[in-house]
Amino acid sequence: MSMKPLEFDRRYGELDQVISAFLGMPADDEPDRPSEALQSYLRHTWHTRPWALATAETQLREYARNPPGRLRLSLGEFYPVPDVGLPESAIQDWLFVIADHIKASIESGTVPPTSIPRTHWEWHARFPELGQFLGGWFSQDMPDAFPDHDTAVRDYKDTTDSHVVARLTGELNELLALRLDESDYALAVTELGMEVDPPRPYSPSGWLALVAQTLGEPPADYGPPSQGV
């Protein structure tokens, strides 16, 4: 029997967030140097959910001290650490190193400076709805589903809750406010799941600005219904 969601979150919820930051990244943390993946986790979490850092440190340390035994493995009541490129014998020590870095960051109050996302995980953690939008409506299948980009954007707007549309509009404006180089905007949309080029003649940033404008337009107001005579 697999673990209930509530119990999983209590034991492993923030641990899972930390480990997810390492997917596709080298787990090359050293006692005197956190990896790029861990720095991304620390940067994003410090600036969005600083209270979660203590939970992460506790869950990492508890898991390293009490790895799942045969019974928990057979019941499925454990957190399966994904493949991070380390041999199984090195996982325990690596988890302790990560926990030590997080503890040191908390105790020193060292908040990583703001930066554009530097890993795939950080792009999606910072711009989650934009990732859903680009990966869902502008995958490589987009030309088969919609005649053009504008139709896809309108479909998203018409079929998505207005509160979620507002969240996406905010993320678009935040990304545009960073004033990145055009090559960085091209990287951003790729990291966030876009698998087709922006429509001509738009650059990636120009198209994102157009999408933000389209999504921010209020619904048409046709006025009150006419009264019969």
Structural class: mainly alpha
Q: DSSP helix count?
A: 12
Query: In terms of per-residue confidence, which ranges show pLDDT below 50 for 5 or more consecutive residues?
Result: none
Q: Over all CA atoms, what is the radius of gyration? A: 22 Å
Q: Compute the number of strand runs.
A: 0
Order of helices and strands: HHHHHHHHHHHH
Helix fraction bin: 55-70%
What is the total number of structural domains?
2
Overall pLDDT level: 90
Summarize the biggest pleated sheet.
none
Outline: elongated
Instruction: Calculate the terminal CA-CA distance, rounded to whole Å.
Output: 69 Å
Please report which band the strand proportion falls in: under 5%, 5-15%, 15-25%, 25-35%, 35-45% or over 45%.
under 5%
